[in-house]
Every structure is written in C-alpha cells, then in structure tokens.
TrEMBL record:
GO terms for cellular component: cytosol. One of its GO terms (molecular function) is DNA binding. Coiled coil: none annotated. Gene3D superfamilies: 1.10.10.200, 3.30.70.980. This is Probable transcriptional regulatory protein PM3016_4565.
Length: 248
C-alpha cells in the first residue's frame, strides 16, 4: 500500500534543483565525475546494468544530466578491460558557519590528498570536519524521481496499482516529484515506465536534511564559498547540506 507522508518536501526539492542547476553550469566536471563513478561501479560488479543494479542507478542519473553516450561507453569499456585504477569511496562529515551541516562524498585514488583538500576547504571557510556520524544522523538517504506530463493524483494511482511504497508525492514547477526509500528507486521507475513515462527530469539517490536552516547574509556568503570550493575538488562526487539557499 502506498505510504505518503504528510510532510511537504517542496523545499527539499528546491535545494536539489539549486544543486543540479549549479552543476549543469560546468558540464565537463559533471561528465568527468560520472565517468569515474560508472567505471568504479561497473568494475565492482558486472559492466552490465541489467545484472548490476547499482550501475543501472548511476546510468539513470547520468541520463538526467545529459552525459554523452561516448563518455558512458568509454567508462564501461575501461571497466570491462580490467582497468588498473583503484578508487576508495569516502564520506566526510562537517560543520559550516552557524552550525550548518555538510556531507561530502568522494571517489579517490589518493586518500591523503583528498583528506587534506577537504579539511582545508572546511577550515579556510569558517567550517570544521567532524567525526563519522556527527552529521549523517540528521540526513535521510532518499530516492528522488521527477517527471512531467502527469499529475500527482495520476502518479499516486500508478504507484498504488503497482503496490510501490513511497514517502511523498508533490507537484512543483510543472513537475511531479516522488520521494522514496532508496530501495524503491527501481520499483518507482519501472511502475512509471510501464505507465508510459518515457523519461525523468531527475533520478537521484541523495541525502536530504531532516530540517533546513537559513543563514544570515554574511554567514551564507561564507557557506556558499565553502560549498563551491568543495564541489570544485577533483575527487569530490557529491556535497549535501542543510542550508536553504533559496532564501536570498
């Protein structure tokens, strides 16, 4: 039975849109990160998305960022050929100005370099690194799937019929956004595809803060600089935080 929470998640979706729009401004960086992630996930399992569910998730995300097929194919071929590069998956948790919270996910072939660069990005911009678990408990791992061409009621009926449980369904900016547990990512997509949805405006597995905060103008400027520095680091794949950047 479909479970829809009574919590409005529109503000959370705004933060995802903000991040996606920001990343879209630097496509070469996005492509490089997806190429690395596809290689790592394909090498860890099978380079076939039909037998490697994690790879299928990455490829679905890549579609919403318009990653060229050539880059995807190159990463898959590299994995099939037994590429020699080894990457460690790292997660850093820290605090920004005014107690803001940040999670940084990285893929790196040099752990010491990445740790040093991430620490510097925090400390030089009014932040500090925390220990593992100091921030993550305030975030929820969430699948976010967006689509157009259907109403929230229609999506609700589709998911009820398919017996897929989700957390919330909202309409915003002419799109319908479905929030679900990460384990339901494929079930949601398959139900919607079977109902005629050809493509998705967003297909993310992300970390959403349980509560968002608004920073005073001076602290927000410092916070945004810190996030920009973190996102510019070569080894960083994703940056999540609990600051509402829409209130400017």
């Amino acid at each position: 039975m479909l479970k829809v929470s009574g919590i409005s998640m529109g503000r959370k979706w705004n933060n995802i849109k903000e991040k996606k729009a920001s990343k879209d401004a630097s496509t070469s960086r996005i492509y490089a990160r997806f190429g690395r992630e596809i290689y790592v996930v394909a090498r860890r399992g099978e380079p076939d998305p039909e037998s490697n569910r994690a790879l299928k998730v990455v490829l679905e995300r890549a579609k919403t960022y318009n990653v060229p097929k050539a880059i995807i194919d190159r990463a898959l071929e590299k994995a099939k050929g037994g590429g020699e590069e080894n990457y460690d998956e790292l997660r850093y948790e820290g605090f920004g100005p005014n107690g803001s919270m940040v999670i940084v996910e990285a893929l790196t072939n040099n752990v010491n370099r990445t740790a040093s660069e991430v620490r510097a990005a925090f400390t030089k911009n009014g932040g500090s690194l925390g220990v593992s678990g100091s921030v993550a408990y305030m975030f929820d791992a969430t699948a976010v799937i967006g689509l157009t061409g259907k109403t929230s009621d229609e999506v609700f009926e589709i998911l009820v019929e398919a017996e897929v449980d989700v957390r919330d369904i909202v309409e915003e900016d002419d799109a319908v956004i479905v929030y679900a547990d990460p384990e339901q990512f494929h079930a949601v997509q398959e139900a919607l595809k079977n109902a005629g949805v050809a493509e998705f405006t967003v297909a993310e597995q992300t970390m959403l803060a349980q509560n968002y905060i608004t920073l005073p103008a001076d602290a927000q400027g410092q916070f945004e600089k810190m996030i920009d520095v973190l996102e510019d680091l070569e080894d960083v794949q994703q940056v999540y935080h609990n600051v509402d950047l829409d209130e400017e």
